């Protein structure tokens, strides 16, 4: 698990506050406060995974836009959009990206 998740969490909290970030992640404000203070009694693996999935962003190689890892993974694991040539080109590019989950 990458250590960058804690910095991502700190940045999000600094920009938006603990309560909104905690709600977005599905954790209490207290849990986020304890994690940030290094005083969380449990393992932080689940929090780290959630932070990376919900708050971490990547740049899409097709359109250059920032998107969350959750959105990236959802698009990359979706079925091929054969109804629209541009969306199909995007999907094919997505399937070659290092962030692609390919339905995993």
UniProtKB/TrEMBL annotation:
The domain of life is: Bacteria
Entry-linked InterPro entries:
Lambda_DNA-bd_dom_sf
Cite the GO molecular-function annotations of the record: DNA binding
Q: What is this protein called in UniProt?
A: XRE family transcriptional regulator
